[in-house]
Amino acid sequence: MTAKIISGVEIAKQIREELKAEVAGLKEQHGVTPGLVTILVGENPASVSYVTAKQKTAHELGFHSVQDNQPEDITEEALLALIDKYNKDPAIHGILVQLPLPKHINETKVLYAIDPDKDVDGFHPVNVGKMVIGEQCFLPCTPHGILEMLERSGVETSGAEAVVVGRSNIVGKPIANLMLQKRAAGNATVTVCHTRTRDMAFHTRRADILVVAAGRPKVITADMVKEGAVVIDVGVNRIGKTPEGKAILCGDVDFEAVKEKAAAITPVPGGVGPMTITMLMKNTVQAAKQFAGLA
Ligand SMILES: Nc1nc(=O)c2c([nH]1)NC[C@@H]1CN(c3ccc(C(=O)N[C@@H](CCC(=O)O)C(=O)O)cc3)C=[N+]21
């Protein structure tokens, strides 16, 4: 079998078109322009490229978008004060502090400082808690994007064996939780594997849907995948540079080999990544509507 390629680029494009129309409507009918600030501390090249992509997308959708760059040596106190300023700014509906932060800043403290109503990343414990209960909240962007991909590709998750590789707060834990819930792209039987899992392949081979967020290049090889599985690769590993200096990316899945076995697979680049950015935009539109009492 050669897998169907689930294109994050294509699905993201479709959602962005929907959002663009919604933003235009919000402006015309209600005078509301969704506002997003992305705060970047330091100059980590990967972070710079992600934040640039987020700003570009926000701009294309007609948002009020603010890029706030801060020096690597900003104090925790100053960063918390900055967040407080945006918490109070009525033109800003979504606040994103790009992670990771420098070591002298307590990441947890920073994420707790963001107003949960502006927490479009869905990392504040109020939103995490609401997510687990299944209440309306901001879902973290990468898991949210995966749900949309599964749903819009017609993947049947109900009753299926879903195996998640990775237990991060950003991807592994939330996607496992969401796929377990009574919801679209949910109702799965979920197993979570991690670095201490004794026999990873034993679990992954049982997966009808395999979500891989391990953070290590090509850890999932063809022998670990069941014939006909749906494989979602969340990995973004920079494994080198082209002669022109562009980063060469690969996922956590050995794409070339696994695509011969899977029923469907997401590529890297062009899979989950573009969906992550798009869901940030979707969450920001949601935040703006809530702020205006429209949702
Ligand atoms: N507060 C916070 N929120 C985040 O959502 C967040 C973060 N911090 N820190 C880092 C991770 C990583 N992340 C990605 C977003 C887009 C792509 C993406 O668009 N990737 C492209 C390739 C882009 C490239 O060339 O690097 C693709 O896969 O096709 C990847 C990864 C968001 N993150």
UniProtKB/TrEMBL annotation:
EC number(s) recorded for this UniProt protein: 1.5.1.5, 3.5.4.9
Pathway participation: One-carbon metabolism; tetrahydrofolate interconversion
GO molecular function per UniProt: methenyltetrahydrofolate cyclohydrolase activity; methylenetetrahydrofolate dehydrogenase (NADP+) activity
Catalytic reaction(s) noted: (6R)-5,10-methenyltetrahydrofolate + H2O = (6R)-10-formyltetrahydrofolate + H(+); (6R)-5,10-methylene-5,6,7,8-tetrahydrofolate + NADP(+) = (6R)-5,10-methenyltetrahydrofolate + NADPH
Domain (Tetrahydrofolate dehydrogenase/cyclohydrolase catalytic): residue spans on this chain: 6-121
Gene Ontology cellular-component annotations: cytosol
GO biological process, alphabetically ordered: L-histidine biosynthetic process; methionine biosynthetic process; purine nucleotide biosynthetic process; tetrahydrofolate interconversion
Keywords attached to this entry: Amino-acid biosynthesis, Histidine biosynthesis, Hydrolase, Methionine biosynthesis, Multifunctional enzyme, NADP, One-carbon metabolism, Oxidoreductase, Purine biosynthesis
Family statement: Belongs to the tetrahydrofolate dehydrogenase/cyclohydrolase family.
Subunit structure: Homodimer.
Role description: Catalyzes the oxidation of 5,10-methylenetetrahydrofolate to 5,10-methenyltetrahydrofolate and then the hydrolysis of 5,10-methenyltetrahydrofolate to 10-formyltetrahydrofolate.
HAMAP family the record matches: THF_DHG_CYH
Protein's recorded name: Bifunctional protein FolD
